[in-house]
User: Which sequence fits this backbone?
């Protein structure tokens, strides 16, 4: 990919993201999609209630068709996680798993919202008392503290490295690390203490987190535990940009009928934009988001040319 500015950058390679990509690229916008299709909730689903799909169809088969369709139309697909995002002027800069930075005129968040939990004793009881699911949100509370990050993928590794800028001691507990070579190298060059081949049995503490009991029988004395299973939580990353959540449940990104969020140039579609959790709804919102984001980006480009 050329190092110029992407018109529409889509985070999420499920039905919402791929439909957004198809509609955006058909309007002659440059489109990049980030994400790993096998993580989409539809990937392992059996679909039988989607219009024009007769009988029971495997979600993975539908996604394969969608991915080929997107490529054929000219969408660039990067099977990498998004690790960080910031807005500078009218552009968005995103940092991805390989360490590259991409600049985009618009962003579409098209990912699910479910937080994966460890489901161990102490996790629920100590939530907000040392148990967190967002390094980007809560790292500052652990200055000079001892912390542990639990997870096997990019969110855990990036979170652990980030925490070294705040905490006095950082542990990473992982069954088996599944990250890019670049991210692994960054981890190995950091002061993070890696416990690979381990997992969590229990989070200990009375009124706050005090320890992490490992399945091997070992114990880590820590003041905080960050559960980072999978990719970065997109809602957390979106809110760091100022994107507003719905005012009633704060469980999803608030959008209007154009799938616009509270920040100009940022759109959301699919599960991250609220219920119902159906492919039909995700595809419809993806269509609108892709169309509107492309219009916004192309209008920006025209304005820039006219001002030059």
Assistant:
């Amino acid at each position: 990919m050329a190092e110029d500015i992407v018109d529409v950058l889509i985070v999420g390679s499920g039905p919402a993201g791929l439909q957004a990509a198809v509609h955006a690229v058909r309007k002659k916008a440059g489109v990049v999609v980030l994400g790993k299709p096998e993580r989409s909730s539809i990937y392992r689903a059996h679909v039988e209630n989607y219009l024009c799909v007769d009988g029971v169809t495997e979600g993975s088969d539908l996604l394969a068709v969608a991915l080929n369709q997107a490529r054929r139309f000219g969408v660039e697909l990067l099977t990498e996680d998004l690790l960080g995002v910031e807005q500078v002027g009218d552009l968005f800069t995103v940092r991805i798993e390989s360490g590259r930075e991409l600049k985009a005129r618009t962003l579409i968040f098209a990912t699910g919202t479910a937080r994966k939990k460890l489901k161990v004793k102490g996790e629920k009881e100590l939530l907000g008392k040392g148990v967190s699911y967002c390094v980007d949100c809560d790292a500052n509370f652990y200055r000079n503290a001892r912390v542990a990050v639990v997870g096997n993928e990019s969110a855990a590794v990036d979170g652990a490295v980030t925490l070294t800028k705040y905490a006095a001691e950082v542990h990473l507990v992982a069954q088996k690390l599944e990250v890019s070579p670049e991210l692994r190298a960054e981890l190995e060059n950091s002061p993070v203490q890696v416990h690979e081949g381990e997992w969590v049995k229990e989070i200990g503490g009375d009124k706050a987190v005090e320890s992490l009991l490992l399945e091997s029988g070992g114990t880590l004395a820590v003041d905080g535990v960050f559960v980072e299973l999978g990719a970065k939580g997109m809602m957390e990353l979106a809110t760091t940009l100022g994107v507003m959540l719905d005012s009633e449940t704060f469980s999803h990104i608030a959008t209007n009928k154009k799938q616009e969020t509270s920040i100009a140039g940022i759109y959301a579609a699919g599960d991250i934009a609220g219920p119902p959790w159906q492919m039909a709804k995700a595809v419809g919102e993806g269509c609108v988001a892709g169309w509107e984001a492309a219009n916004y980006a192309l209008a920006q480009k025209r304005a820039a040319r006219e001002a030059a």
About this structure: Helices lie at 15-26, 59-73, 135-138, 154-163, 181-188, 234-240, 279-307.
